[in-house]
């Protein structure tokens, strides 16, 4: 969980989340499969909203938000962030 969500969501975020999920017709924009609104966290197929641009750049602008399954959102990762290069390991 990011530091931004450490204290939980706000009423404003819940309204925006509902707007995005409805706008996208409850279809995951990452895998194009439908999202079941009855599923709840931590179900991998539960609804989340994916930021297509870093939150620090775009904030919560709905133009840069899209409906996603939890699993798809986690696989997509944080936009603009790359995984660190693996370290060389030597064992004797």
TrEMBL record:
Record's protein name: HNH endonuclease
Annotated region (Disordered), positions in chain: 72-92
Native organism: Haloactinopolyspora alba
């Amino acid at each position: 969980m990011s530091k931004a969500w450490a204290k939980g969501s706000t009423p404003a975020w819940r309204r925006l989340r509902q707007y995005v999920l409805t706008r996208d017709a409850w279809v995951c924009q990452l895998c194009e499969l439908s999202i079941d609104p009855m599923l709840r966290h931590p179900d991998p197929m539960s609804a989340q909203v994916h930021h297509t641009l870093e939150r620090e750049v775009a904030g919560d602008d709905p133009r840069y938000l899209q409906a996603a399954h939890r699993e798809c959102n986690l696989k997509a990762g944080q936009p603009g962030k790359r995984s660190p290069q693996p370290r060389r390991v030597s064992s004797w």
